[in-house]
Amino acid sequence: MYKLILVIILTLIFGSGLKADKKINDAIGQLSTADQIKLCLDYYSEKPFLTACPDVIKAKETLNHFFNDKIYEKLKGHKARGCWCYDEGFVFEENEIKIDRIEGTPQTQKYVKEFEMYLREELAKQKIKITDTAKCSLGLCIVHVEPRLRTGKEPTYPGLLIEVYTANNRIKKASLDRFKMGKRNGLKYALKEAAEFIVEGLVISTPAKIKEAAARIKKLREMSKGKK
């Protein structure tokens, strides 16, 4: 099971295709079950944004458009996942959301309208009502867009970089996320998947889903300690 998880994870990181899949499959096949679990856990480990994210050095121009330095100090994640988060204990309630703001930078503003359309469509699919009286709210900024495939030493798929908050204004708790989404088949699909990612974040933040996820992580850690 863990071998399958790792194949999926590493294929997403290093690229898809039969050759990539075979290389990844062969490499993972040489690992013990304990090492496979360890690699899974490392992928989901939390590292400080300011010391572990390449953007801090290589893409400074994407910083401080929406989030500020105090927030960046709190974010944790993993460069392989491309997602950095800080969760104060946000809980999504009543299947309703208020959209505070959807913004862009001078470089990304022209993509905001299209992204908002996809976000509203995804909320509707999940039957999440948009209303100004909701206890929970969200706001976001598209801080960078890579409109086309970039080849070279560090190839990049068409995609975008987003900073987003979701807040429960009743309990005064929020979740802050900075994440990248790239798609080989074009920017349109990256915009759609980023919208899906944000809405999925709401869906899995209900009390029942939070409890379920905690139980799964606990079980994985216990198995990691028990396997040799």
Notable traits:
228 residues; alpha+beta; 2 domains; eight-stranded mixed beta sheet; Double Stranded RNA Binding Domain; single chain
> Average pLDDT value?
82
Q: Under CATH, the topology of the largest domain is which?
A: Double Stranded RNA Binding Domain
How many β strands by DSSP?
A: 8
The structure class reads alpha+beta
- Portion of residues in beta strands equals 15-25%
Summed up, the domain count is: 2
How would you characterize the largest beta sheet? 8 strands, mixed
* Assembly form of the protein: single chain
Describe this structure in words.
The chain has 228 residues and is an alpha+beta fold. The protein has 2 domains: 2-43; 48-210, Double Stranded RNA Binding Domain. Helix content is 44%, strand content 23%. The protein is built from 9 helices and 8 strands. The protein has helices spanning 2-14, 18-29, 33-43, 49-52, 55-58, 69-74, 112-125, 187-203, 207-226; strands at residues 47-48, 76-78, 83-87, 96-104, 129-130, 136-146, 159-168, 173-182. The chain has an 8-stranded mixed beta sheet with strand order 1-2-3-8-7-6-4-5.
